[in-house]
Amino acid sequence: MTRCPSRLWRCLMGAAALAWGAAVAAGPAPSAPRGELPAAVQAALRRAQLPADALVAYVAELGPQGAARTVPRLAHRAQQPVNPASLMKLYTTGAALDVLGPAWTWATPVLTTGPVVDGVLQGDLLIQGRGDPTLVIERLWLLLREVQQRGIHEIRGDIVLDSSAFVLDSADAGDPADFDGERLRPYNVRPDALLLNLKSITLRLVPDPLHGVARVSADVALAGVQIDTAVPLVSGECGDWRASLRLDFSDPARLRLTGLYPASCGEKTWPVAYAEPGSYNVRLVAGVWHELGGQLAGGVRNGVTPPSALPLFEVNSPPLAAVVRDINKFSNNVMAQQLFLSLGLEQAARTGPVISASAQLPASAPVAASTAEAARELLRSQVRTRAACSDAEFSIDNGSGLSRRSRSSARCLGAWLQALWASPAMPELMSSLPLTGVDGTTRRPGRDWGAALGRAHLKTGSLRDAIGLAGYVLGSSGRRYAFVAIVNHPNAGTARPVLDALVQWTADDTER
Question: Do both 224 and 111 map to the same domain?
C-alpha cells in the first residue's frame, strides 16, 4: 500500500483539486441546443406516445459551492409547476437534515402516575409519542421489556398511549382509503405521534406440500384478532401470486385469506395495513405486554399524559440520517409524513403551537404540538430562502408526495438540490438516495441505465398520472449534475424509458 506523505487529508485534497481542475479544463459539458430535448429523449417520447410538454426537466452542472457553474445544461419547461409525486420527499428530508442535523433522534418518554411497590405500579403507565417512525415491533418489545427491567411487572392502573403531539387536520386523520381506495395498502397509513409498527401486519406464507397448504403467520399478535393460518396450495408458475388470493379484513377481529397459493412461489411476505387503525396501538401493546408475562389490572387505552406524571425513562430512535436513508431509498410515505410533522414540532417549539382551523388542541396536550400547517410554513421558509423559489413554483401538502395537490417546478427542485449540495449534511442526503440499478427503488426490472448504471443517486417518484427522477448524476467526464425530470400525463406510467434516456444523456457528457 502506498503511503501518502505528510497528512493524508492534504494528499486527498490535492488529488481532488487536480481532478476538479481537469474537469474545468475540459470545458463545459455538451448541451442540448437552445434547451431543446436530446434526440434520444425525443425518440423515447414518441415511442411512449407522450407529448414533449408532458415533460419538465432541469440539468445543471454543480460547482464547488453547489451553484450551477454555467447556465443549465438543459432547462425544458423548467419553471412550470407540476405534481412531483415522491420527489417531494427531497424537500422534507433535505430540510430535516439541515434544520435538525443528521445525528438528531426522536425521544419517546415513558412515564408513571404512581409509585412502584414490590413490582406493582400503583397507577398508570404512559407512553408519550413524539413522532418516532421507527417504533417497529422489535423496538416496542424492548421498550416494554425495559419497563419490566425497571421493576414493573404488574400495573394496577392502565397503559395509556398518548398521541396528542400531532394535531391532525381532516386530511391527515381521514379514511386511509381516501387517496386511492386502497385501505389495506401500508403506504396509506395515516401519521400518528405514537406510530407503532407502521400500523401494519406482515403476513408470511410458507408452503407445506405434505399437507397441501401454505401456512400463514403474522409478525405481530394483535389482542383480539384472529388470522386464518392456511390456504390451499396449487401447482403452476408463481406469477402474480397476490392476485390468486383474496384478503378479507371486513371484520377487524379476523383476517381471512382465501384463494389458492402457487407452491412454486416458495416463502413470501405480504405487508398489509390494519383495517381498524384507531385500535391498532391498543391491540398491539396489549398483545406484547401479555407475551412478556406482564399483568394488567386495567386496560390499554388511548389518552393524554397528565401534568403530574413522573418520567420513568425514554427511548431514542436511530439517528435521523439512518431514517432519511430508509425514507428515500424505499420511498416510505408513512415515515416521510412522520418526519414532516416532526418538523412541525420543531416549528411549534420555536413559535408556539400553530392550530389549523379544522383542528382543536386537547386541553391537556403538550405546549408544543405539531400541525401540518406548521410543517408547511417551515418548509416554505426553507425553500424560499435556500432555493429562491416563488410560491407559484412550490406548494407542499403532506411532505411525502402522496398527494394530488403538491406542486414543484423542475427549476425549483433543481435549485434546492444545488443548495443542499453545498450543505454540511450533503453526504448524508446523497447517500440516502437510491444508487441507479444497485439498490432501493431504482432496482426495478427492465430499467435501462446505460452509462448511468451505478453512477447516479436518484430519488424516484410515481403516482397514477405522475412519474419522476431527481438527484445527482456523475458524468463520464467527472462532472456532477443536479438532475430533475418529471412527467405529468394520464399515461405517465409509460414514461420510464423517457426518464432513463435523459439520465443516460446526462451521464454520457463527453464530447464525441
Answer: yes
